[in-house]
Specification:
This protein is an all-alpha fold and 218 residues long. 60% of the residues lie in helices and 0% in strands. The longest helix is centred in the first third of the chain and has 25 residues. It starts with 46 loop residues before the first helix and ends with a helix.
Length: 218
């Protein structure tokens, strides 16, 4: 039954589609080998996930460092841990969702980890749900920032963003099963430029710094 249903590509997904005889059995799953094959939608290729998660973490940490440099402050280790983890989740989400979803995910995780760690270490009393909601919403709104068109990166034939679109489509349709690390990095570079992911992360970090300063002055 599952293989008779069309996915977003309007093709039978996975393992060669109709060109693999085993797929014509409407009751089979994962090529009749569910022990080894556990990726029904064909989108998990490891290196692309790593590239987006690690790249997102680096951007998150970098945004926190830039915030400290521009504001002349020194953030706690909890802030950096939250920025790195939130950046990783936001980057990974960008691979599978749009920039709004990635911004919301990054903002929510960053805030949750920051508050959780500071609560655990005694630097904060309780967990402020309103702060979580604000940073999540801000991340989502900043996801609407327009990307910059750069030839070879976000525009033009064979650009990095074009590679991202091609590879994600091929993975979804089951025409490829893996991605090389070099290709995964190109995908990440094109995607973050096209969605203004770096600018959004930096802006959210600076907005958070402004909120903290206002809170301290009260």
């Amino acid at each position: 039954y599952w293989y008779m249903q069309q996915d977003g590509s309007r093709k039978l997904p996975g393992l060669g589609g109709v060109f693999n005889a085993v797929n014509m059995d409407v009751y089979h799953y994962a090529g009749n080998n569910p022990v080894k094959l556990v990726d029904p939608d064909g989108q998990y290729a490891i290196y692309d996930d790593l590239a987006f998660a690690v790249g997102g973490a680096i951007i998150g940490l970098g945004s926190q460092a830039v915030q400290d440099m521009l504001t002349g402050t020194k953030s706690d280790w909890e802030d950096y841990a939250a920025a790195g983890i939130g950046g990783a989740i936001g980057g990974w989400a960008l691979l599978y969702t749009g920039p709004v979803g990635a911004g919301a995910a990054g903002g929510a995780i960053t805030n949750s980890v920051r508050q959780g760690l500071k609560w655990f270490t005694g630097k904060q009393k309780g967990f402020d749900i309103s702060e979580l909601a604000i940073e999540t919403g801000t991340g989502a709104l900043l996801g609407k920032l327009p990307g910059i068109k750069v030839k070879g990166v976000t525009s033009g034939r064979g650009s990095m963003n074009a590679v991202y679109k091609q590879m994600t489509t091929k993975l979804r349709e089951g025409t490829i099963k893996s991605i090389k690390p070099k290709t995964a990095i190109k995908m990440f570079k094109g995607r973050i430029k096209d969605t203004a992911f770096v600018e959004g992360a930096w802006a959210n970090s600076m907005i958070n710094a402004g909120k903290n300063k206002a809170k301290d002055e009260k």
